[in-house]
Every structure is written in structure tokens, then in C-alpha cells.
Amino acid sequence: MTDATLDTGGERRASHGSLTAQDERTKRRNRAEARFKAYGIAAISAGLFFLCVLLVSIITNGLTAFQQTFIEVEVFLDPEVLDKNGNRDPDDLRKVSTFGYNPLINQAVFDKINSFDLDSPIEDPKQMRNLVSASAAATLRDSVLEDPELIGQTLTYQLLASSRVDGYLKGRVSRESIAEDKNITVEDLDLVDQMVEAGIIAKSFNWSFITGADASESRPEQAGIGVSMLGSLFMMFVVLALSLPIGVAASIYLEEFAPQNRFTDFIEVNISNLAAVPSIVFGILGLAVFIQFMHLPQSAPLVGGLVLTLMTLPTIIISTRASLKAVPPSIRDAALGVGASKMQSVFHHVLPLAMPGILTGTIIGLAQALGETAPLLLIGMVGYIATNYPEGVASGFMDPNSAIPAQIYQWATRADPAFYERAWGGIIILLVFLMTMNIIAILLRRRFERRW
Amino acid sequence: MYDTPELDRTVTRNELKFACKNVQVFYGDTHAIKDVDVELEDKTVTAFIGPSGCGKSTFLRCLNRMNDTIDICRVEGDILLDDVDIYDKRVDPVQLRAKVGMVFQKPNPFPKSIYDNVAYGPRIHGLAKNKAELDDVVERALRRGAIWDEVKDRLDAPGTGLSGGQQQRLCIARAVATEPEVLLMDEPCSALDPIATAQVEELIDELRANFSVVIVTHSMQQAARVSQKTAFFHLGNLVEFGETGQIFTNPTDERTESYITGRIG
Q1: What residues of chain A lie within 8 A of the CB of B95, using their CB?
Q2: Which of A255, A264, B22, B117 could form a disulfide with A324 if both were Cys (CB 3.0 to 4.6 A apart)?
Q3: Is the pTM of this model over 0.90?
């Protein structure tokens, strides 16, 4: 076939030396390879090291937020104080504020201590307020308003201990650190030691941290992340409902239908650029467009969701286009070849094959949006909601609310170190959410992945 | 010089399917097909041969407007299918492709079951009114694709799990399921081993009874074995078109002779 004859080189034959001894060149090459491997291993080790540091510090700092100190006391719900008229009328009961309940609680704790025959240096029941959370009265009042028949009975309550007592049991507060603290005294701590031994004060799992609402600066022991979880959930609904259809439709159009010209190139470049725009820019865009121009309510999950949708769209579009591109063109040819229209070939064949990639991209985009803080600060998604269900809990897309990362940010900026612990705890919850979403992404990928 | 099996070489004048006049194809500035005039008959196998890059596949893809999917491709001239210009504005390429089926170089079954692969075309064209009718259509197509006996017990198995040759016959079955009038085959055997190739060639010869088949091939033996008419393309030109026997034994053009004897290509 071919006219070329091979030049065999005749006598000229390079000497290659022994196969068992490496020559200088080979040694250099092997050294370079070993060096490169070492760089890689070093890089990965550094990454793993910091991952471990991150996890360990988050867990050691945050796990305590899931434990809370409670005081178990029997409170006599004195009708003389709570219902002077004696008619159990809810409106009358409502007039008694939490201040009315405080003496009952202080007396109950005082009596409890005396009944255990502890060596208490404290003579005045009023001093008990150092031990009990300011929220305890509210707990009592809520239970009375819910069931007025409780008045007159003596009931056992698990009341929240004050944040100083809680901190003392968790090691955050010590006798030295309270020198300047007006909220607790050394005598109080001595008493707490005895109460722990007597079993009156104990730590237990803190469900209200997961389900509860935020609390004011003065009572960190009551603060929970539940309401902002709800806010994040509402936002994720909005993001999913908007960004998935819009993103997938845009990518299908750009990838399968749009003509290749300067205009589509321009759009393509800009979508890639949008993915790199700092999130705070989206926040100020949301502020300008959704709140100032469209007059949507501030702090509402709807607005938060819209802003995060804008932020997530480029991620979803890029990943969807990549997975559409990865579908072999022979499948499109096959569909067109049997007389399917362009749209049929896309929706019957290309899209199902691209589905795992699209879902993974969407979930990763959602996870990114879930952890976003900066744009939420700008649109006021840091609503302070301190009342538990059913009153006051953000009930929908238009009511003010907060979000998990915004709540964590709020706690981190507060003065009381007890909030610091809760910020770490919030991060654990956020990470659990993110990990769950990533696991779902992996499972979906496995489930839908098909070979061709 | 070739062992041509004793096929039916007596060419009776069949009804004309495709009439192409002055076809020009451009890819951007590249003139890929120059002035091609060719007439393809019904119930005939026509082979397109020629060296790589000579435009035979491009021309084949013009016949069912698969080139429409390439943005920079431009087709000029007339391609008439049953006296209708298929590049007329009123012609819907989707309807055209239902009439002119295509089998590709690489077997490309959908990643679905064997049944769904074959049933897809009839479904989207509404060729079957109910499940039983669809079953019939699928069985007939698979029988025509000479693969029924191998897959009848596992119609739910994925089409991608078959061997290469079976996949290609499945693709042929899928193409004939929509009852096309013309079947275009773009190097259908290039990814197959000799045994599978023989099966597909046998199949092509059977398909001739019902369809007009156009096959692009790199193998001159294959062209000689399966076709009644042969067109030789070179550098975008249709050099010679005629009865297969005549092209291979007594070519009129020098280039054809050089090619079939292996001197160019």
C-alpha cells in the first residue's frame, strides 16, 4: 500500500546500557515523579488536618448547646396570687404578668433547698432568682393559661436554670470569672454544688434548642434555633420552586435550541460571571428590587428565597448545561433519526439521561443557598422572634423570620458567652442539614445513573 | 476480481424515490458537496463508496435533513422525494424523517428496554392504537431486523446490554418500525465483527424487498455484495454512478478504477 520504505538505520544503534541499572535521566525522572507525589500527599494531608480541626472544634464547642441545666421543683400555684377573683377567667389570668409568678418560683426553689437540709448560706428566697432562668416564670404562666384548672395544685416543673448556673455546670463559668458579675455570687455557686449532689439540678437533653425560638440578650439559656430553621425551610421551598424550573429551562434552551452566535456567547459568559458575583451584591440587588421597588415585606422568607434564587440560578444553569453536554450526541441522532421532534428528543431522551447531574447540581446549589448569610443581612432576614408556637412563630412566606446562618451570626455577635456556645450548636445543625442534602444528592445520583 | 455472491444483478427499472439535482453542501466556507446529480430507486440497495472525507456521509445526511442540526451547514440544489422538494419551506423535517429512516455508524440504542427502543418511533407517530397493536408492530420490526429470535424472551432487558451486532440490528429494527420508505445506513457495519457484518448484510438484502436502502460503506467488498447500484464519491464530487457490477468490473472513470484497485484512498 504505502510507498515509504522504513529507514532501519543500518549500523547506527543507540546504546541503552543495562536494564537493571538506572541511568541519570531515568533517575531524574523518577525523582521528579516521587516529588510530585509527595506534594500531592502533603496537600491532601493539610486539607484533612484542617477538616479534622474544624470538626473537632465545632463538636467540642457546640455539643454543649444540646445540653441544658434544669432545676426540678414542686411549685404551688397559689390562687391568692394567680387568680384573685377566683373565677378562673382566662382574661383575668392573663392580667397576671410573669412578675406575679416569680415569687412562687423563688419560694418553691427555696423550700426545695430547705427540704433537702442543705447547708445554705442564703436566707432570702428572692436570691433564688440568680439560680432560675428569667424564662421560668413564662413557662409557668403558659402552662397556667393553657389549663386554668392547675391553679391551687402543687406541680413538679423542670425549670431552666439561669445561664450562669448552666455555664458553671458546663465549666464555662468559674468562681474566678464571676468576680465582676452581678448576676451570680460565690455563695450561689456553693449552693449549686450542693444542689447538684442532691440531684435537684441536673443537665439533660435540650429539645427546645432544636425546636424553640430565639430569646433576648438576658436569657441565652432559652434561645433555640427552631424558628429560624422554619425560616430556612420556607426559603428553600421558594428557591427550589423557582430556580429548578427556571434554571433547567434556561439551560435546555441555551444548550439544545439556541443558535450559536455572539448574543448567546455573551449570555453564556455572563452566566459564568454571575456565579462568581459576591453574594452580598445579590443581597443589595434584592433590597433594591424586591423591597424598595416591588414593596415586598422586609425580613420575609419570600424575599430571602427570591434573592437566594438569583444566587443559585447560575450554579444550576452551569451544572445542568454540563450534564446536558455530557449526553452523547448519538442519542440525539437516534431520536431525530426515528422522526422525533427536537423537543421530543430532549424531553424523552436527553433530559432523563442528564437528570442525575441536574439533581446533583440543584441540591449543591440549594446547600450553598442554605448556608448563605450576607444577602440575608441586607434584606433584614434576621428577624427576632422570641415567642414559641403557636403565637408569633413565623407562619408563612410573608411573615418576618430569620434563617439558620443569620441566627448563628446574630448569636455570635451577642455579648453573653452563653450565646457563643449556641452559635457553635447552630453550626452543628447547619452542617447536619448540609450533609443530609449532600447524601440525598449522592443517593439520587446512584439511583438515576444509567449507562449508555 | 471480487467474490460477489450470486445476487440478483438484473436491474429492473424500479420506481424512482429520490431525485437529486445540482446538490451543493457548504460547511461554512467549505464546499463539501459539489454538483451532485443522483437518482435513487425504490426497492434497490444503493451504495455510496469513496475515500474518507469525500462527502458521502454528508450527502446521505442531506436525504433526511439530519444536516439541519448543524448550524453552519447549508444545502443548495433540489432533492426530490417522490417529486416533493424536501428542502421546501413547507416540509417538516420530522415528517420527512418518519419516511426516511436512518441507521448510524455506531450502534446507538436508547438506554431503555429493547421493547421501548423499537416502540418509541411508532408511539410518537401514533402508528398503534393500543398495546396489542404496538406489540405486533414491535414484533414485526424485530423480525425484520432479524433479531426477534434472540431477544423475544427478554424484551424488557436494556437495549444497551446487547452485543454490538445485536445492538445494530436493534437499531435497524427501530428504524424500520416506523415503516419508512427509504432507509439510510451510514457505515452500519464499521463497528461490527465479520460475523455480525454478515448478518447485517443479509438483513439489508432482505430489506430491499420493502424499502429503498442507501448505504454508505468503506468496504468495497460490502458494496459489491449488497448493492445493486453504486455511487463513487471523490473530493465532494460524484465521480461515477451506475450498476454495481459495472462499476466494479468496468469503471468508466480513471479515479474510480484507481480507488477500487486501491491506488487512491
Answers
A1: 339
A2: A255
A3: no
